[in-house]
Amino acid sequence: MIEQAVVLAAGEGQRLRPFTATKPKVMIKVANKPILEYVVSALKAAGIFDIIMVVGYRKERIMDYFGDGSKFGVKIRYAFQNQQLGTAHALKQAEKMVDDNFILLPGDNIVDSSTVKSAITEPYVLVYKRVREISKYGAIVLENGRVREIVEKPKEEISYLANTGIYSLDREVFENIGKVTSIVEVLNGMIRKGYRIRGVECSGKWYDVVYPWDILRVNDLAMEFEGKRIGGKVEPGVTIYGNVVIGEGSVIRSGSYIRGPVVVGNNCEIGPNTVIFPSTSIGDNVNIGPFSAISNSVIGDNVRIGGSCHVEDSVIDGGTVIASHFSVISDESEVVVGGELHRIKAGVFVGEDCNFGASVSTEPGSVVGNKVKVSPLKVLRGSIPDGSTVL
Q: Where does residue 145 rank: exposed (0-12), middle (13-18), buried (19+ CB within 10 A)?
C-alpha cells in the first residue's frame, strides 16, 4: 500500500477573489477549518502519515498553520514552487523528497479517507467522480476500466466522469515531465507511450471550490457532525435545535435562537435575541449584535456585526466590521468571474478588513474587495475593488 502523499498547495485561486488576495485557496475556511486541513485529516485516516506539501503563493499562511504536522498527528515537509507554472512543475519541485510510490492530490478539494483509499492500492490509478456539468473539469475517457485520455474543460460533453486530480504514481512520472507544466499532459503522454492507468470511481467525498459561491455549498456539505457540543456559556432563554457546535469561551446571550447545523468558534459573543439559521459557520472572536439574523453564511474570524442586521447566503471574511441595520438581499443575479458569466443565487461576498457604516444594503451577488470602506446608507451592487472608499 502507498504510504506517502504529495499535496499541491501552491496556487492562488484567482476565481475566488477577494478571498485569495491575502491567503492561498487551500486556506479558505469551511465549517471553521481550512480546506487543506480536511485533506490532511483524510490522508491520516487512510493511513498516510508522510506528507509533502508543495507551497508557493502566500506559503507562510500554510506553514505557520500546519508547521511540521505534529499537532495533526502526521509528518509534513515542504517543497517550494516559486512561480505557479502548472501542476507538473509543482510536482517536479518535490522530486528529491519522494519515495518510489506516492499519491498525488490537490490541496484545494475536500476529500475523505474513502476517496484517498480508492487511490492508494497501486500505481497507476486515477480517481474520477461522476458529475452533471463537466465543462469546468477535466473529462475522463475510459476504455475497459483504463484511462484512454484526459480532456481538460471539454467544450463537448464527451463524458460525465470528472478528473479529481487524485492519482497514485511512482518515480517514473518524473522521467516523463521534462518541460511539460501540466500533469494532465504528462499523463496523456504516458498513456500514449503505453502506460496503463486504471480509472477508479470516487467512493467518498470530493468537493471542489472554484468560485466564491462554492464556499457556501461546501460549507454546508462539510457540516457532517452530529449532536450538540457546547464549549462556551449559554444564557437562560436560549433555544438550540439540531447539530450545533459552540466553541470555548463563547457566550450566547438570552433570547437567541440557533437551528443547526451551525458552528460557532471560540471567544464569540452572540445576541441577545439573535437568530442563527442552518448552514452557518462563525469563526473565532466574532461579535454579532442583538436582533440580528444570519442564515446560510460563512463569517470569518474577528468579524463584528452590529445589531438588527440581516445576512443570508453570504461570505464575510476576517476582520470586517459592520455597523447596525446592515441588510443583504439574496436573490438570483448574474455575476462575471474571469470573463465567465454565471447566474447564481447569492447574497454578498465581502473580503478582509472592510468597514461598513450603518444602514448599508447590498444587492444580490455583490462582491466587495478587501479593505473597502463604505459610508452609511449606501446601496452596494456589482464588484467593488480592493481598497475602495464608497462615499
A: exposed
DSSP state of 64: H
Share of the chain residues as helix, strand and coil, in percent rounded to the nearest 5:
15, 35, 45
The three cell numbers locating residue 388: 475602495
Distances (CA, A) of 124 to 112, 121, 176, 369: 20, 9, 14, 43
Cell numbers representing residue 349 in the block: 461576498
Cβ contact 258:244 at 8 Å: yes
What is residue 205's predicted lDDT score, i.e. its pLDDT?
87
CA distances from 275 to 71, 264, 308 (A): 35, 13, 10
Phi, psi of 215, deg, nearest 5: -60, -40
Residue 231 is placed in which grid cell?
464549549
CA dihedral for 14, 133, 27, 369, sign (positive or negative): positive
Amino acid at 23: K
In sequence order, what are the beta bridge partners of 351? none
Alpha helix segments (H runs only) across the chain: 35-45, 59-66, 87-92, 113-117, 172-175, 183-192, 212-222
Instruction: Tell me the pLDDT tens digit for each residue of 235-274.
Output: 999 999 999 999 999 999 999 999 999 999 999 999 999 9
Question: Angle between the 59-66 and 35-45 helix axes, to the nearest 10 degrees?
Answer: 50
- Residue with the three cell numbers 490541496: 107
Q: What is the DSSP letter of 57?
A: T
Number of residues that this document lists for the chain: 391
**C-alpha cell read off for 196:** 496503463
